[in-house]
Amino acid sequence: MSYNIAVVNFPLPEDFAEAVELVNPLTEVELEEVQPIFQEFHDKVTGIYPCLCSLSDDEIDSGVWCDGPLINNFKVKAPVIGFSFSKVEEAFPTVGNTALDMGLSILDWQAEKVYNP
Fold first, then answer.
1. What's the pTM?
2. How far is the C-alpha of 88 from the C-alpha of 24, rounded, in Å?
3. Which residue of 7, 14, 19, 27 has the fewest CB atoms within a 10 Å radius of its CB?
């Protein structure tokens, strides 16, 4: 199981239901390449928490992401990234603050919350 969030490069409505209505369709809009802001975000967070693809077999279970290569998750209009449930407490605050510091917004389906910079 995973704990998924969407990261977008525009402000989200404060109302969770409105944000979901806006974001959900964008998670399916595929792009040919990763947008520069999302490439930068990816590089920052994988610098802290490496992509599963860069971990050895012995390290996989200690990774925070639920899939990889993580960069593939950023080839949509509204990227969705997933954390292993056991790593959410450790990684989500750092990843979330990195996004907000970069001017990105977050939709957190599990907590039913919206975070804007």
1. 0.94
2. 21
3. 14
